[in-house]
Amino acid sequence: MHDVPLWLWVVFVVIVLVSLAVDLLAHRTAHVIGFREAAAWSALWIGLAIAFGGVVFLVVGTDAGVEYTTAWLLEKSLSVDNLFVFALIFSYFKVPRAYQHRVLFLGVLGALVFRGIFLAAGVAVVSRFTAVLYVFAAILFYSTYKILKGEDESFDPGKSFAVRLLRKFIPVRDEYAGPHFFVKEAGKRVGTPLLAVVAAIEAADLVFAVDSVPAVLAVSSDIFIVYTSNAFAILGLRALYFMLAGLLDRFHYLSVGLALILAFIGVKLVLQASHKTISTSVPEIPSLLSLAVIVVVLAVSIGLSMLRPPPEKKKSEQG
Question: Most exposed of 134, 224, 249, 283 (fewest Cβ within 10 Å)?
């Protein structure tokens, strides 16, 4: 555990709250977010994350700074899978583009809360039962298998448990009513499809947390490191989605890269658990090496995706 001063926690909370407030005010009027606007916001979120990482390096130390950077980059790369699911959910519910930011904003708020709960629970469990790291490793290996076998694309927004549960308690109409989540019909309050979309987004994030939480806990067991890195990765999700919305299919090798990263982190967890439970002679993978592996795998997978068009595109071009 790192010695993190209380004022740094306060600074982090203030940054998050101010950032959310500014983002909400900037998008208080529903509109279609174009590439330039999304790129500017994405640069802002990335800049904030990097700047905060610099503060961690200076205040908490080099080890903490490397762990934060590794965890943030890991969460940022894993969040790309979320983007594909966001696109699927918006397509399924036919969400007008002007209202998508409003939905994702609420999705981010929910993710910040739930990730905090899951990470705190994960840190508490790992600190008391080191052997649970083997379970986390197994989860990551299984996720790797699913991605490589193409079984990770079976998400059905309409059959989401959260959406079905919502419809049991709140009647949801079929038509949108502008950016509103609720409207009154015959004197009764009913939900709009936007409410169902928020439920689907939150449910998807809970599913992704199954991979995300074990992965980041392999990098650090310090709640400050794992939560702040997660928070900054989550904050930039909306801008990243709108910036890459039309390019997601282009990065067809990225899923393979993410699978390799998950497998590597799984191995890191196994070695880490063995070092603590079996013998200290079992080597551990240092955070700096983990950071290097993540950077190289991401760079190669993105580079290959840009150099080689998707198979479907190649076939269509030949035809």
Answer: 283
d(CA 267, CA 134): 10
In whole angstroms, give the CA distance from residue 72 to residue 227. Answer: 9
In a structure prediction context, what are the per-residue pLDDT tens digits for the chain, which is 319 residues long? 788 999 999 999 999 999 989 888 877 777 788 888 888 888 999 999 999 999 999 999 999 999 999 999 998 888 877 787 888 888 888 888 888 888 888 888 888 998 899 999 999 998 888 889 999 999 899 888 888 887 555 556 666 777 888 888 888 888 888 888 899 888 888 988 888 898 888 888 887 788 888 889 989 989 999 999 999 999 888 888 888 776 666 777 888 888 899 899 999 999 999 998 898 888 999 888 998 999 999 899 888 888 887 665 444 444 4
How far is the CA of 124 from the CAs of 120, 171, 292, in angstroms?
6, 39, 28
Alpha carbon distance 236, 294 (integer Å): 19
Rounded CA separation 79/233 (Å): 8
